Every structure is written in C-alpha cells, then in structure tokens.
Amino acid sequence: MNFLADITNALPETILVAFGLSALLLGAIGGDRISGLLRLLAALALAAASVAAFVQFGRGEAISAFASAELSPNGLYRVTLFTLFAKGVTYAMASLALFMSGGFLKSAQMERYEYPLLVTFGSLGAGMMLSANDLMTLYVGIETLSLSSYVLAAFRRDSIMSAEAGLKYFVLGALASGLLLYGSALVYGFSGGTGFEVIASAPTSVGLIFGLVFLICGLSFKASAAPFHIWTPDVYEGAPSAVVAFFSTAPKIAAVALLANVMFVAFGPHIDSWQMIIAIISALSMLIGAFGALMQNSIKRILAYSSISNVGFALIAIAAGAELGSAAVLVYMTLYVIATLGIFAGVLALRRGGKAIDTVADLNGLVKTKPGIALGLLVLIFSVAGIPPAAGFWGKLQVFTAGIESGMLWLVLVGALASVVSLGYYLRLVWAMFMKPAGEPMDRTDASVAAIVAISTLIVFPILTIGIQFLLSAAAQAVVG
Amino acid sequence: MALIAFYILSTIVVLSALFVVAARNPVHSVLWLILAFFTSAGLLVLIGAEFLAMLLVVVYVGAVAVLFLFVVMMLDIDFVALKQGFQNYLVVGALIALALLAEIGIVAAAATFGGGETFNASPGAPTNAEALSRVLYTDYLLLFQMSGIVLLVAMMGAIVLTLRSRPSVKRQNIAEQTGRKRKDAVELKDVRPGQGL
C-alpha cells in the first residue's frame, strides 16, 4: 500500500484532520481570543472538504483507500458516488451551521475555541463513517461523531438543561454503541469478516440476521428513528440552538445515508431479511414524529419530532432497496437538511431582549415585526412539510414513488397519513407567524444568519427548478455501486 | 481440557457481569467488574491471545482501580455501616476470591499438567505482540489513527466540560512576590508621643 496515494484518495478527511490538529495547537496558544477566527477558518476547511468530495463525485467512480492484500482487499475506506454525494452535503451543512452560529455563541457566552474544533472533528467522524467499507471503520467514525456530539450538547455548562441533554445523549448513545458492537461481533462471527464485501457474500444464517438486527438498532439510534428516538426531543430542547442546528443537518443526513449504505452494500443480498424491519421502523418513525409534535409548545421540540418523522420518510426509500431507493434517499435528505438549516437559521435570528425565542407563542405576529424572515420561514416550513410549490414536495414524491414501485403501498399510505397529521403542527407555526397579533419587538438580526435563511429559502423555492433538476440527475447517477 | 476451561470461564464472565448490574453497593459492582475482566483475560489466553489478555488486565483492571477511587470519593458511602455488615458480605467476597483463585489454579494446572500444551496458538509463528505490531501501523493504519482522533476528542471534551477560569480565585504570583520592594510594603510613620496615628 502507498500511504501518500491513500491520504490523497481520502482528501476530504485529510483536509479536516490537518486543519483540526493545527487549529487545536493554535487554539491552545491563542486561547478563546481567537475563537471567532478559528470558527471562520473551520467553516472554510469544511467548505473545502465539501468541494473536495464533490470534485471526487464529479470524477464519477468509486475510490478505495487503505487496502491491503490479505486483510481488506477492497480497502477499509471506500467511497461510492452515493456516499460521496452524502458526504459533500454533510460537510457543506456543517460549514454553514458553523458559519451562522457566531451571533448565538456571542450572546450565549459560549465563544470558546473548542467549539469549532468539536464541530470539525464531529463532521470528520460523519465523513469517516460514510467512507466505511468495514465495520471497524464504521465504528471509529460513529464514535468520533458521537463523542463530539455529546460534548457539544453539554457545551453550555452553566445551563442545567444543556448538561441534562449532554448526559442523556451520552448514556443512551453508549447503550446504542454497545448494541452496535454486539451486532458487529455477531456479524463478524457468522460471516467470517468485517469487510462489507465479505458480509455481502456470506450465506444468510440465523446468527447473521441477529447481528443485522442489532446493527440496525444501533444505527437507527444515531439516525433518531423510532423506536430509538426517545433522546431526540430532550436533546434538541436542552442543547444550545446553534448546536441543534448542526445536529439536525450534517449528522442527520450522514446517519441516514450510512444506514442506507450499510443495508445496500453490506447486506444487499440479504434484503429479504431486513426489508420488513426497515419498513416497520419507517412507519413507526413517521407516525410518532407526526403525532408526538401535535401537543408540543417548544419550537425545538416540534423540530425534533419533525426530524424523527422525516427520517421515517427517508427510510421508506431505504426499504425500497438499492436500485429504487438510493437516489430518493439522497434527494429527500438533501432537501430536508437544507430546509432545516434555514429554519434553524431563522430560530437563531430571532432574539428578544438578548434571549433566544423558545415557544410557538414567541413567533406571534412575526410577519409584522420581521416580514422577510417570516416569509422565508413560511417557504421552508412548507418544504419540510412537503407542500407542492416548495422543493420538499419533490423529495417526498421520489420517496413515495420508490415505495410504490417496490410494492409497499401500505407504507406509502402510512406516510401520506403522517404527512396530513404533521400539517397540524406545521400550520400552527405558520398561523402564529401570520395570523396572531405581534408581540414585543425582536432584536436586530445578524447578517450571516439572515443570509442563510435567504439562501436556503431560494434553494427550496421552485424559482430554482433547474437546481432541483440538477439535484435529481446528480442523485440518479449516485446509485450505490 | 480447554473446552472445560472455556465453559467454566465463560459462565463466570456472564454471572459476574450480571452481578455488576445487580449489586446494590457500587463498591461491590466494581469488584464484580474486576472479576469479569480477569475472567475475560482468561478467555483470551485460551484462544492464544496472551498479549491482549495482559493488556486487558493491565489497562482495564488498572483503570478500574482508579474508578474504584472515584466511586469512593464521589459517592456518599457510610463505611462504618459497610463494615458492620462484614459478615453478611463475607460469603460474596469469599466467592469472588475463590473464583479468582480457581482461575489461577486452572491456568497453572493447564500449564503444568497440560501435556506440553503451549499458550501460543501457533507455535513457531510470531508472538502476539509481534503479529499485532506488524499490522497495526500498516494494514490498520487508518483505524489506529482514527482511534487517536477519538481519544483526542474525548480529551478535549473532558477539558471543555470541566476546566473553568475563575477570576475571583487568588493565585500565588511568585514574580510579584519576589519583586516586592521595601517601599511597597513598609511605611514609616512618625508617631508623636501621646497621640495616635
């Protein structure tokens, strides 16, 4: 093996590691004074990694690295067009989430230089788990992402809610890691290898299926799919808003794409064993996400349930199998995380007397106090809800088409039902913004945050239908191979 | 012989892991944990991975000793009350001790009377440590380095969550102390007799 060739093939991760380590040194010398500078540099490094991933995607072929003749002939690290696309979006979302967090960090007195570094290392873990072609690479990637996430959730040390969020996330995450490892051990034991190719070529056996079930449990936890979703509302509510903006975008698409990748590549030949499991998880997630949010008052809890529900929709496409589903997963999750990033930018933009808004009632009459942001949020919420003029509709259409073509009409009907129910809380947000009388005036909005709201609104608004056509054709290429 | 040892050891591992969770007293949980680690090390020896077995004992049992200290420090345990029930726990303690002793006995017996059995699963091949070190930095370089990143993140996290700068705390500044001049510290007052300052 050739070390230089390997790290060149893994260019996006190499950029992030190089930046993360040198920035850690800079931060140790410069202290919290240079945290603003490091945040911008980290956003740039993540953007560079995203560009590198898309350049690799443009070359149009899968890339392997860290291969050795006897142990891992196809590499511990292998990216296909599918994972490259997901990775590019992941890094881009992390970069934007970091870019727009400046104002929030300042007002919450969280300006410490470790913050951008933890986001960088967390994204590195997300990228590494997407690049995994081996259960071991998958595990170290997941752990890098998870450890950074636990610390980020508890980053606001003086807030008891934040500490609670971090602790809950940590304890439940450790349990999920245990399930994942146990599943990996069973899969290794019954297939004779940890590489995805070895697992794919192993005969189906009871032990392999048991390991597969445990693996799905562990991965569903990371993607916050029901019934492993319990942590999501509490962590979203307690963690600082800027951190939740990161959680609900970059790791979310990475986790769903990872689940898809593991199912399609490693367990592709065993699809009869996992199709029904994924379909049931999908139906549960959609229903729990839709009904759970109806009684919530906190905006962040509503968004948490919305993310559970949307992961459920993406799982329909995974249950449809690699040929039908892989493009739909990418389109759906990409449009979802872009819209979510915009919504969180809006939530971060709205502050009243230096305090971030929290409940739905805080949005009352927003159209009179901040008409621009209210309109942007309207389009973004429509997109997440999948209402036709906005781009989210196209994502849902793709997912439902994949579901019907694979013969799971019942699942698509459950999805349609969940969509209708979830309109109840989406429209409640819109109602508060447009129909209620205005409350106290809001503080001034940061330019960076307003820009993100505007950009993501433009992307999900049908003005850029060409953009959606591009996304559809790019995702169509990215069938797992 | 090896199969019997395997079944004995694995039964002890499972039972002691169960007691780690079931024990009410955290100190007992830690003791059961140590037994579980020792027994797992025994299992590793059985499959010929003696280097990993030693690592498990040195690293984990060592770490557990530290964990034990933390438990003692952090939790409010009334040790007088604990000692009063010494006889109640004598059976449990004796069981753990016996199991450990029996394990050492089995291993020693296997080595002595095993009829030329060696612990190296593939005699003549490189030893465990050598075999591991051959692949650790070559075939598994990526995993090795990523594990390093995981540990780095864990370290950063521990620092982020616990280190705080407290401006109100007074610290010794040696340069300031030694740089003090007489005129900074001592003031001469001419006090007239019969009057105060």
Question: Care to describe what's here?
Answer:
The complex is a heterodimer of chains A (481) and B (197). With 481 residues, chain A is mainly α. Chain A has 22 helices and four strands. Chain A has one domain. In chain A, the strands form two sheets. Chain A has a two-stranded antiparallel ribbon. In chain A, helix 12 runs antiparallel to helix 16. By secondary structure, chain B is mainly α. The longest helix of chain B is centred in the middle third of the chain and has 28 residues. At the A-B interface, helix 2, helix 6 and helix 7 of A face helix 7 of B.
Topology:
The complex is a heterodimer of chains A (481) and B (197).
Chain A: H1 3-9, H2 11-30, H3 35-59, E1 63-65, E2 77-79, H4 81-99, H5 102-107, H6 114-130, H7 135-153, H8 160-191, H9 196-201, H10 206-223, H11 231-238, H12 241-247, H13 250-266, H14 271-292, H15 299-319, H16 322-349, E3 351-352, E4 355-356, H17 366-369, H18 371-385, H19 392-405, H20 409-435, H21 447-460, H22 465-477
Helix pairs in contact in A: 2-3, 2-6, 3-4, 3-6, 4-6, 4-12, 4-13, 4-16, 6-7, 6-13, 7-8, 8-10, 8-11, 10-13, 10-14, 11-15, 12-16, 13-15, 13-16, 14-15, 14-20, 15-16, 15-19, 15-20, 16-18, 16-19, 16-21, 16-22, 18-20, 18-21
Chain B: H1 2-22, H2 26-46, H3 50-74, H4 79-84, H5 86-113, H6 128-136, H7 141-162, H8 174-178, H9 182-185
Helix pairs in contact in B: 1-2, 1-5, 2-3, 2-5
